[in-house]
Amino acid sequence: MLYRLRRKHRKNGNTCQCEPETAHTACPLDCQVLTQVGKGCRCRIRGHKSCGAVRQRLLDLGFVPNMEVEVVRCATLGDPLEMRVGDYYVTLRKREAALIEVQDL
Amino acid sequence: MSSTANPIMIGLAGQQNAGKSTMFNMLTGANQHIANYPGVTVDKKVGSYRDKEGRVEVVDLPGTYSLTSFSLEERVARDFLLQEKPEVIVNVIDASSLRRGLYFTFQLLEMSFPVVMALNMVDVAEANGHKIDAFRLSEKLGIPVVPTVGRKSKGRAELKQAIRQTAGTRPAPLPIQYGPLEKPLSAILDLLKESESLGQKVPLRWLAIKLMEEDNEGIRLLKEYHKDAGRVLDTVRDLIAAFRKDTNLSPGDHVVACRDQLAVAIVDECVEITGKDRIRFSEKIDRVLLHRGLAPLFLVFTVYMIYELSIVQGYKLTAITWPVLAWVRGTLAGFLPDPGMLNDTILRSLPLWMIDSVNTLLNYVPIFLILFALIAILEDSGYMARIAFILDRIFQSFGLHGQSTLPFILGGVFTGGCAVPGIMATKGIPDERSRMATILTVPYMNCLAKIPLYALLVNIYFAAHQSWVMLFISTITIIMAMIVAKLLTMTILRGQETAPFVMEMPNYHMPTLMGVLRRAFDRTWVYIKKVGTIVVAVAVCVYVLLQFPGVPEERMADYEVRMGIALADFRENIQGTDFAPMLQEDQAILDLLNIATTYREAKMAASSQEASQTVDERYEALHPELFPLLRARTGETRAISRSLRTLTAERGDIRAAIREDTIVYSYFGKVGRALEPVTQFAGFDWKINVALISSFAARESSVATLGVLFQQGADENIALEERMSRESDAFGTTPLHALALMIFFALYPPCLAATIMIKVQTGSYKWMVFSIIFPTLFGLAIASGVFTIGSALNLSGLQAMAGFYVVALGTALLLSFVRDPAWKAEQMASSGIKGA
Question: Which residues, by range, are in coiled-coil regions (chain A) (predicted)?
Answer without folding.
Answer: none
